[in-house]
Amino acid sequence: MSLPLEGKIALVAGATRGAGRGIAVELGAAGATVYASGRTTRSRQSEYKRPETIEETAELISAAGGKGIAVQADHLVPAEVEALARRIRAEQGRLDILVNDIWGGENLVEWHKPVWEHDLENGLRMLRLAIDTHLVTAHHALPLLIERPGGLLVEVTDGTAAYNADHYRLSPFYDLAKVAVTRMAWAHAKDLAPHGATSVSITPGWLRSEIMLETFGVSEENWRDATDKVPHFVISETPRFVGRAVAALAADPDRARWNGQSLSSGELAQVYGFDDLDGSRPDAWRYIREVEEPGKPADATGYR
To answer: Checking CA distances to 6, which of 149, 239, 301, 302 falls within 20 to 30 Å?
Structure first.
């Protein structure tokens, strides 16, 4: 069977868990060699103190049909990111896809607090983790990506540009972090276009990440049980869904048509025709506007 990304080299920065892991695995399923970077390894844990590791992600990539390579890197440390870019150059001589999924702010954000009540150190740390890491990674990895025409940069955020433009994301720090990443992708698009490369931002919908499932006390196998307490969770999606969106973009020879745009997994599923693992196509951002916000009963009929 032909694999659309066979021979392609990808770096997924922030591939330890969540959307980053889902994207890395789906790029592997499409045949790519994927460098999965992050801070947590089997011998070293980040301040998250989560069990997921980059080695596990690399193994999942390889099991899906690609080649997974785990690399421990703190993307706030320029020297470590520079070394990662040098390693990819030395081992592969090219970089076709760069995914910036670094986040790390779940334990820092304080919801429903104005800036004067939010812990300042936590808020500024969140911005460093969400914004500085992306810029550091772009600085060191994009020179390799633009050496060949056709490169793809994907900046992962939460919320489309249209949604975030008129919705306050419940914390000034979180709001700024997510809007900034979208704008960053737009700005990179201006610089990358002359080199024949494409830059986009992408958002999953309501993501059934490891942390979200744990918070709701369910697993992927029984996730619908959480809808008893959180009815609109019915529109949620697996991390592999946004992964399939990124893989579809990377395989599209006409992907430059998306340059600079803010995209969502649900939107791209309608364009490229891929499904989530359960065979559905959740369109979370349309659901939020048309069902959840008007106060209608939770019902994903017609939205997945």
So the answer is: 239
